[in-house]
Amino acid sequence: MTDLQFKLFQDLLGILGLQGGYNTSLVLIGSALLGAVSGLVGSFSLLRKRALIADAVSHATLPGLVLGFLVAIALGFDGKSLPFLLIGSAVSGLLGVLMVQWIRDNTRLPEDSAIGTVLSSFFGLGVVLLSYVQTLKNGSQAGLEDFLLGSTASMLRSEAELIAVIALLLSILALAFRKEMALVCFDAGFAQALGWSVKRIDLIMMGLLLTVMVIGLKSVGLILVIALVIIPPVAARFWSDRLSTMLILSSLFGALSCYLGAALSALAPDIPSGATIVLTASSFFVLSLVFAPQNGVLAAALRFTAFRIRLCSDQVLSELNKGEPVPDSLTKAIGLYQLRSRGLVAPLSMEITREGHHYLASLQEEN
Q: What SS3 state is found at 352?
């Protein structure tokens, strides 16, 4: 490790230990809260099979973001005032969601076609408005493009505090409606039979998702914020089939992704924070995909290998019982080794033991 690499590593440890300054520490904590609520809310969207709605919401926020900037300028405020930008993004995103639902319910188009239509239309309008803003003779539009890919380095203390407070309130609301949303996700028909309004609960989930997407614009950016509500729940899904465990792990993965990604962004301000956060979340997904003990690729490969070995050993035992010669092959040798280690075949001969005959009898009964 060179001196430069060692210094960068020390700086990173200092930032992770909240020693990088008050504003940086506040940004890290706010980002972690954002990641936690993103994983929490995203879990219900994933289980409801409406994760792609987040894509439409994120892209639909762009025209509202730019219009919020123009309204703030017209009223004499700073164009990049976060409350104006968040309100504009929320209104635009809500309009996009309502348009997707209207197209799905009142036309023959499926939901994915409705999402694609709204996504492309709103994002195209946002790009046109953003191009117009760049022609204005006003210095406050500089840096507005940071909302496309995210930028924690330019986040103010007041902005970080606002994001943290909203994220905390969203977490409380999501936990308060956890049982209702879980029942709708797993069995909407049963929830309706109990007298619950499925549409109202869906609107609650959609409102939580929309708010998460909006407050994540500053940290992750509207293009990449969709990953923050999809990747942590998907990674958590590999580790458990229980909802409570999945919610905890998803929130943990989201919080760690934002915390580590924001720290890396503070260490390298030229790199968009959204990219570092999403890549960090992707690393948790890859680790879960490979090493999850129940549903991971490695565990599945080990189970398949054990099944093949067990099948091969059963075949070798059957051939020995019939007096047939065992072919000389690696798989047969492994099968014979397994039989001897299990005590079904004598160690120094090809004789089937009493336990082996009992095991053959049980196999025949099962067949």
A: strand
Q: Which residue do the tokens 């953003």 mark?
A: 130
Classify burial at 258, counting beta carbons within 10 Å of its beta carbon; exposed 0-12, middle 13-18, buried 19 or more: buried
Please give the distance of CA 288 from its chain centroid, rounded to a whole number: 11
Mind listing the pLDDT tens digit for each residue in 30-67? 888 889 999 999 999 889 888 778 777 888 888 888 88
> 190: how many CB neighbours lie within 10 A of its CB?
11
Q: Which domain holds residue 305?
A: 298-366
- pTM (2 d.p.): 0.83
- CA-CA distance, 74 to 84, in Å (whole number)? 12
Alpha carbon distance 196, 243 (integer Å): 20
Residues 208, 330: one domain? Answer: no
Same domain, 186 and 83: yes
Quick one: pLDDT band at residue 97, thresholds 50, 70, 90? confident
Structurally, the chain folds into a number of domains equal to 2
Structure tokens at 85: 């930008």
